What does this fold into?
Amino acid sequence: MRPSSIVTFVDEGCATAAGNLQLMVPAAPDVSVAVEAQHLVKSYGAVRAVDGVSFQVERGEIFGFLGANGAGKTTTLRMLCGLLKPTSGTALIEGIDIFVEPLKAKAKLGYLDEEPFVHPHLTGREFLDFVADLYRMPRGPERAERTERLLRLFELGNRDGELIGGYSHGMRQKIGLASLLIREPSVLLLDEPTNGLDPRSARLVKDLLEELAARGTTVLLSTHILEVAQALCRRVAIIDRGHITATGTMEELRAQTGTEQASLEDLFLQLTAGPESKEMIERLLAPKP
It folds into this structure.
């Protein structure tokens, strides 16, 4: 919670002899922070899928959110984008509470799910037009040109007449990402964006994210592909069983674990593998009696 500040209000129409009126109001949000999770908790009955997750993502940063399957990555992202209401805690997009002012916050972000919903009975071009209409983008040459550029960029320009229902998984990922970029949001929340992509398309997405970040777009990237995270992300947060176990740069994580030359994979395994995992491996590899 940020500290409050004292602001003085003067009612010019009815100033009193007592002077100015002082009220305690919340301090202005930190404009350098684009995404902030504050003590997010999500419970399903007695099970806490996410337990007190907190981190900040700076403007123009590619921030990695790493964890094994079932660690709580997707649940956290869905709370941050307003799809899933937290049991407790706060989700802020550019200082705006997404559950207090949802329309204002969601106008600034784009969210790509691991299994993106893309309308199966529309063509790729029709789907981009549909999304643009939802966000009230004016029709005209500029919007049409942007649509064409995105379809060419993701190698979907020659798919006119083909319904999305006939697309491969990788093609659905690409049209889903194109549907975010059609309106140029300032914050992107991406859940496994390279999942199912061939090497050429995965490299395209990585290059695109780097260029977007260089232009000021903030990217929160959830992935379990550690090579992608190490190549793209300046900082990462590692989540394990609903808890954040570490946050920082590679150098900070190495210092935390006492390993100077460790790769992100080594760090991840050291920070998340419990003793039961090591014991199981030792039993598996033990020589037979």
The domain at 4-274 is CATH 3.40.50.300 (Rossmann fold). The CA atoms of residues 84 and 167 lie 28 Å apart. The first helix runs from residue 73 to 80.
